[in-house]
Design goal:
Blueprint lengths: L5 E5 L8 H13 L2 E7 L6 H4 L11 H13 L4 E6 L4 H11 L4 E5 L13 H8 L4 E4 L9 E5 L7 H21 L2 E8 L10 H23 L9 E5 L2 H12 L3 E5 L13 H9 L3 E5 L5
Parallel strand pairs: 1-2, 1-4, 2-3, 4-5, 6-7, 6-9, 7-8, 9-10
Antiparallel strand pairs: 5-10
Helix pairs in contact: 1-3, 4-5, 8-9
Length: 293
C-alpha cells in the first residue's frame, strides 16, 4: 500500500486555486505526510506583466500559496517549497522524484488538446516514466461519505492479475478510510470472437457464460471487502466508454486504476484513448503501479 510519508506536487504558476497543492495538503493532514511543492521559476512569462499593464504582484500565485501553507502548517503539516529553474513541469517532477524518495505525486488535470497528439501531456509522461503512484486532480472537492471507484482487470485469472487487483483493492480500502468514502468496483470486458459456424443459440449461451465468468471473478475479488452487490459494476465494452459512464453514475470522488507497464487497464489506455478517459471524468484519478508495492 502507499506509505503516505512524502508527497510531491507542483505550485501552479497560472492559478490562484492551487488544486494539486490544496489536495496534497488535505491528504497530508490525514496521513501525517510531508508535502514537497515545486515552484518552477519562469521569469517574465506573462506578456501583460512585461508590458507593465498589470502589477507583477497581482499575478503572483505565491500570495495565495503562502496563506495556504501557513494554514496547514498550523494544523501540523510539514511543507517544503523548492524553487526550480525554468524547466517543463514533467521534467521537474521526474528529476526530483529520481533524487528523493516520494510515495505519491499529485498534479493538476490538464485538459487534452490537439497539441497533446504531438507532445504528450505532463500526466502522460509521468505515467510512462515515473515509478510512483500518480494522482491527477481537478476542481471537484472530495465529498465526505462519497464514493471511490476502482477499475479491476478480470479478463484473466492468473496470479499476476490477481496480485494486481489485490494491490488496487488494498490501496483503495486505505484511501476510502482516509476520505471517509465507500468503495465501488468496475470491470469491463470484451466478448471473445466466435467462428461463423457457431449457431446463434450457441453464441448467445456462450456470451452469457463469458459474462458469468467475469461476474464471478468480480465477486471473488470483492469478497474480502464486505461490498454490497449494487457497488459492483460489470459492463461489456471498452474502458474509455465504460469507466467514465460508471464514474458518473456513482458520482465518484476518485477513480483508482492500475498503471502496470504490460498489464492492467492502463495498458489499454495509451495515447488518445487515455486522454479521452481523463477528459470525460469529472473525478480525480489515482494511477498505481502495483508491482512496486
Amino acid at each position: 500500500m502507499i506509505a503516505y510519508h512524502n508527497t510531491l506536487t507542483l505550485i501552479d504558476n497560472h492559478s490562484a486555486t492551487q488544486v494539486a497543492l490544496n489536495k496534497a495538503l488535505q491528504l497530508a493532514q490525514k496521513t501525517k505526510a510531508k508535502v514537497t511543492a515545486l515552484k518552477i521559476d519562469r521569469p517574465n512569462n506573462n506578456l501583460l506583466s512585461r508590458l507593465g499593464l498589470i502589477p507583477q504582484n497581482a499575478l503572483d500565485p505565491m500570495l495565495f500559496v503562502k496563506k495556504l501553507i501557513r494554514q496547514y502548517q498550523h494544523l501540523g503539516v510539514e511543507i517544503e517549497v523548492k524553487t526550480i529553474n525554468n524547466v517543463k513541469d514533467h521534467t521537474a517532477l521526474i528529476n526530483e522524484s529520481a533524487h528523493s524518495h516520494y510515495d505519491l505525486i499529485i498534479i493538476n488535470n490538464q485538459q487534452h488538446s490537439l497539441l497533446n497528439e504531438i507532445i504528450p501531456s505532463c500526466g502522460t509522461r509521468l505515467l510512462r516514466d515515473c515509478v510512483q503512484p500518480i494522482m491527477i486532480v481537478g476542481n471537484k472537492s472530495w465529498q465526505s461519505h462519497g464514493h471511490i471507484l476502482t477499475a479491476l482487470e478480470t479478463s484473466q485469472s492468473n496470479l499476476e492479475h490477481h496480485q494486481l487487483n489485490q494491490c488496487l483493492l488494498d490501496d483503495t480500502q486505505q484511501l476510502a478510510k482516509l476520505l471517509d468514502n465507500d468503495i465501488h468496483l468496475v470491470n469491463c470486458y470484451q466478448l471473445e470472437n466466435w467462428s461463423m459456424a457457431v449457431t446463434p443459440d450457441s453464441h448467445h449461451r456462450s456470451d452469457e457464460a463469458q459474462k458469468q465468468q467475469h461476474w464471478q471473478r468480480l465477486l471473488d475479488n470483492a469478497k474480502n471487502y464486505q461490498l454490497e452487490r449494487d457497488h459492483l459494476h460489470l459492463e461489456q465494452g471498452l474502458p474509455d466508454h465504460v469507466i467514465p459512464n460508471v464514474a458518473h453514475k456513482c458520482n465518484a470522488n476518485l477513480l483508482v486504476i492500475g498503471a502496470g507497464e504490460h498489464h492492467g487497464l492502463i495498458s489499454e489506455l495509451k495515447g488518445h484513448t487515455s486522454a479521452v478517459i481523463i477528459d470525460q471524468l469529472k473525478c480525480d484519478i489515482l494511477a498505481i503501479k502495483p508491482q512496486l508495492h
